[in-house]
Amino acid sequence: MSDFNTLELITDSRGFATLWLSREAKNNAFNAEMIRELIIALDHVQGDASLRFLVLRGRGKHFSAGADLAWMQQSAELDYHTNLDDARELAELMYNLAKLKIPTLAVVQGAAYGGALGLISCCDMAIGADDAQFCLSEVRIGLAPAVISPFVVQAIGERAARRYALTAERFGGQRARDIGLLAESYPAVELDTQVEQWITNLLQNSPAAMRASKDLLREVGNGALTPALRRYCENAIARIRVSAEGQEGLRAFLQKRSPGWQAQEPRS
Q1: Residues spanned by the domain of 72
Q2: Among the listed residues 222, 217, 205, 213, the one whose alpha carbon sits nearest the alpha carbon of residue 261
Q3: N or C, which end of the chain has less CB nearby within 10 Å?
């Protein structure tokens, strides 16, 4: 799709999409238009059954500098109820990204401040450059990371979230990896190569099984054992075993061949 002003949604013929934040002149900072377009783009991705997974990236030097200063200035002049409407729109974006049916991978370079940490935390996985800079910067300007806080806590834990939300310290890619915000951190010059390796790896997996596993892990949550969870897990494996891709995967494994969802190597 190309009918966005602040984004680019590009579908790869291999079966995945890349959603680019594309306000490079503003360091991909959020404004009301970008938030609304992100919601629309995610709706499009959710409705496209051909997509295996989504990659979220930022054009240019930075992933996202957080909220646009001009937009924040406008928000400061609005009343409580109008600000509440803005907050609900941002929450819709974050919850929709977190609940997306297909796996999501964020790729981070440069700055990722404020609400950008929310986007990263809402993704299932994130990788980034060693020299990327992260910051929950809201308290420096008299605000709080309210809407994004549940997702940040899920990503890095309550203790680390308290530290970085209250101090507004900046931290780099390796620290982001250590606290769980990033799965891996790489030298900046290697980032694009590593992205392609992650994509290649994800393309080896059954699309239906990845969706089922994401549903499963959402239901499992923190892993608290209950009779209802036991029944859910029992049903989950039974359903996937008798599914078309489950049957194909088992047959391919037993027959020592590649399953149908993997790209076939050309014969010489």
Answers
A1: 7-202
A2: 205
A3: C
